[in-house]
What we know:
This protein has helices at 7-16, 22-28, 33-43, 49-57, 69-82, 86-98, 102-127, 129-138, 142-150, 154-157, 159-171, 175-188, 191-198, 203-206. With 218 residues, the chain is mainly alpha-helical. Helix 6 packs antiparallel against helix 7. The protein is elongated and about 85 Å long.
Amino acid sequence: MAKRWQKEDLxxxxxxxxxxxxxxxxxxxxxxxxxxxxxxxxxxxLTTPRAxxxxxxxxxAPPRPETDPLVQQLTNGLEWLQKQEWKKAAAExxxxxxxxxxxxxxxARQFLAICRQKLAVDQEVADDPFLEAVMLRNRGAIKDxxxxxxxxxxxxxxxxxxxxxxxxxxxxxxLDEAAKALAQAIELNPRNRVHAFHSADFAELRRHxxxxxxxxxx
Length: 218
């Protein structure tokens, strides 16, 4: 099967095609010297068959790491990105950008933008316990979300926390507890009656006649 060259591969060949041996390049891209030669000719780096011999056999290959440092740093960055370790990923990607390899730097910048966006969101969440509670709920950490929403009596003083507690109870089927928390949320902010009327979390609660008054709109 013919070697499929990526854009960053071709950029590397253009840059090092005349200074590295065909054997080195073949090892670098896990292919054979014939495929490397064909790519170099197509890129205009080599123009004659004799040029291949000059590149491949005129000098011994100098010792070098098997993996290009910038490629390894990009790989490390992507691995940290997959693990959602945004700070560690950003540190590796910044090294790639500093290396000034155009094709690799372009990719690194794309992923670095993702890291910075995630770090900004994490900081926003850290600064707002309500957002943190919502994220915990969305991740399925229901017990932790309820604990955070109730800490220091937040659900009795802040309608956002009261409504969140109500919606968690309702979605978990604890209808009496949901009704009590929703009543508190409405007392703190009457607009929560409208929110509850349209929320799918309270669909089951709305069907119970004894709690219908919670959803009666003016």
